[in-house]
Automatic annotation (TrEMBL):
Species this protein is from: Echeneis naucrates
Entry-linked PROSITE patterns: C_TYPE_LECTIN_2
Protein name, entry field: Natural killer cells antigen CD94-like
Gene name for this UniProt entry: LOC115050593
Compartments where located: Cell membrane
Any single Gene Ontology cellular-component annotation: plasma membrane
Length: 173
C-alpha cells in the first residue's frame, strides 16, 4: 500500500481488514516530540542542581531581592530556604564566591510591649521561622533598613537593603 502524500506507510493487521493506516510520518513526528521534550528536560537539568528532594537554580544575572523572588516564582520555585547544615554547605558550594539572595527576610512583628519599639523577626519566604542559622560572625541580627538576607562569598549569611545580586531558587521534586 502506498500513501497518497508520498510518505512511507506501516500497514498493520487491522489495515488488511480495512480499519486504518498508520503513517510513518506520524510515528516520526511522535519521535521528534519526544526528542524535543528530552532536550528541554536536559536543558533544565543543566541549569538546575539537585540536592536531596529539591532542585536549585543559581542565576547569572543580578537583580534586587524582590525581582529575584519574582524570577523564582516565574520558574515555579521560590528563593532558597536553608534548613540544615548539609543544605547550607550545598548552597554555599553552588554559590561559589559570589553573593546570592536567599529567601530570608526581616519582618516586623506586632507586639504590645512597654518600650513602644517595634520587634523584628527573620522569616523564610514560605512564612516559616529559621531552624538553622549560618550568619557571618559579628552580624547584627536585627538591623534597621536592611531586611533581606543573602549568602556571601564565604558561605555565610549577611544582609543588605536591596542592592543587585545573583539569587538561588529552590523547588521540590
Amino acid at each position: 500500500m502506498s500513501c497518497t502524500d508520498g510518505s512511507y506507510c506501516v500497514v498493520s493487521k487491522e489495515e488488511d481488514r480495512g480499519e486504518g493506516v498508520v503513517r510513518l510520518v506520524d510515528v516520526y513526528e511522535s519521535i521528534e516530540a519526544i526528542r524535543e521534550n528530552h532536550a528541554a528536560a536536559s536543558t533544565w537539568h543543566k541549569e538546575w542542581k539537585r540536592f536531596r528532594c529539591s532542585c536549585y537554580y543559581i542565576s547569572i544575572d543580578k537583580k534586587s531581592w524582590n525581582e529575584s523572588r519574582e524570577d523564582c516564582r516565574s520558574r515555579g520555585a521560590h528563593l532558597v530556604i536553608i534548613n540544615s547544615k548539609e543544605e547550607q554547605e550545598f548552597v554555599s558550594k553552588i554559590n561559589g564566591h559570589g553573593s546570592s539572595w536567599i529567601g530570608l527576610q526581616l519582618q516586623k512583628i506586632h507586639s504590645e510591649n512597654w518600650s513602644g519599639k517595634d520587634k523584628w523577626q527573620w522569616k523564610w519566604v514560605d512564612g516559616s521561622l529559621p531552624n538553622y542559622l549560618a550568619w557571618l560572625t559579628a552580624v547584627t541580627l536585627y538591623p534597621e533598613n536592611t531586611p533581606n538576607a543573602y549568602i556571601g562569598g564565604r558561605g555565610k549569611w549577611e544582609y543588605d537593603e536591596d542592592g543587585p545580586k545573583q539569587w538561588i531558587c529552590e523547588t521540590d521534586i
